[in-house]
């Protein structure tokens, strides 16, 4: 018996560009570029026994990531069952993960002057090369170790660390830690401390909120400003760090709690998060506009919930660098 053949229920060539971007978060040309890149991995070894062309697979997954709705995805793709879509999702995610290091790249030394200049334009703090924050992405917890995924708000999640540039390009993502883990722990156990320590001779910094300790390479706000200079620094810090909050209002509603928790294993949820970051960066290349349907409040919904700051003890802070910045630039 021959397997069913799935054909697209949509024709990209007949769709308006705005509708394509609204539905898939990428423009027509970028979708075709992505399909061409992933096609070798999406073709089954024996002439596609599933009968699902790469374009159908990619469109189905893009729409799921954009909308968070499996039912809508089925309607717009090819009438495939939920079981079949789950296989397609795994296949597309696996293909995307092979290219992760090509899509999410920390700035090279030769690019740092431009990166610093872009950040300086935001808040007039020198030598910033990234803004970092944590965010929760809700998931249905696994039966084992359920408690480690439980947040302080009593739902279950992955605690995701993101670093972005001034143009909202995501330069780092760490999506492997459960929701009960503190932001500072996620940071300490990521590659960022090593990378930033290697750059210390250049006096470069990341900028983050008070959920992190102030470090030799990480600038945080002054918790209780006592001088006008400290207040000016905090104001500049807020203007600069705001870019990561806007970046976390991502294009992909599958990460948003209003769509419900992701009903996949933690590993698969991690892959979904990383894939959304990759596709966000891909959309920035041709400067695809951020179009999104109105959320429940009538406006654009945030794609992820920012982690509520839990301040670390002052004893962990190394404030010398921050004091120097305040003295030199905000007195």
Strand and helix layout:
Blueprint: H1 17-24, H2 28-42, H3 54-67, H4 70-76, H5 82-97, H6 100-103, H7 112-123, E1 128-138, E2 157-164, E3 170-178, H8 183-188, H9 192-198, E4 205-207, E5 218-219, H10 228-247, H11 266-284, E6 305-306, H12 320-329
Parallel strand pairs: 1-4, 4-5
Antiparallel strand pairs: 1-2, 1-6, 2-3
Helix pairs in contact: 2-3, 3-4, 3-5, 5-11, 7-10, 10-12
Helix count, per DSSP? 12
Helix content estimate: 40-55%
The count of β-strands is 6
Q: Biggest β-sheet: count, sense, barrel?
A: 6 strands, mixed
Task: Please state the overall shape, judged from the principal axes of the Cα atoms.
Answer: elongated
Average pLDDT confidence is 86
Low-confidence stretches: 294-309, 311-315
How much of the polypeptide forms β-strand, as a percent range?
Answer: 5-15%
Task: State Rg.
Answer: 21 Å
InterPro entries: HARBI1-like (IPR045249), HARBI1_animal (IPR026103), HARBI1_dom (IPR027806)
Family: Belongs to the HARBI1 family.
GO molecular function: hydrolase activity; metal ion binding; nuclease activity
Cofactor: a divalent metal cation
